[in-house]
Amino acid sequence: MKRVLVVDDSRLQRRILSASLSKWGFEVLEAESGREALEICRQSPPDLVLSDWMMPEMDGLEFCQAFRAMERESYGYFILLTSKSEKGEVARGLDNGADDFLSKPVSASELRARIAAGERILRMERELTEKNRLITETLDELQALYDSLDSDLLEAKKLQQSLVPERYRDFGSADLSLLLRSSGHVGGDLVGFYPISDTRIGLYGIDVSGHGISSALMTARLAGYLSSSSPEQNIAMQKQLDGSYEPLPLDEVAAKLNQLVLGEMETEHYFTLLLADVDLATGRVVMVQAGHPHPLVQRADGTIEQSGPGGLPVGLIEGAHFEVFERQLHAGDRLLILSDGVVECPDANGAQLDEEGLEEIIGGLKDMRGTNLLEALIWKLTDFAGGRDFPDDISAILLEYQGDAGAI
Question: 204 and 276 in contact (C-beta within 8 Å)?
Answer without folding.
Answer: yes
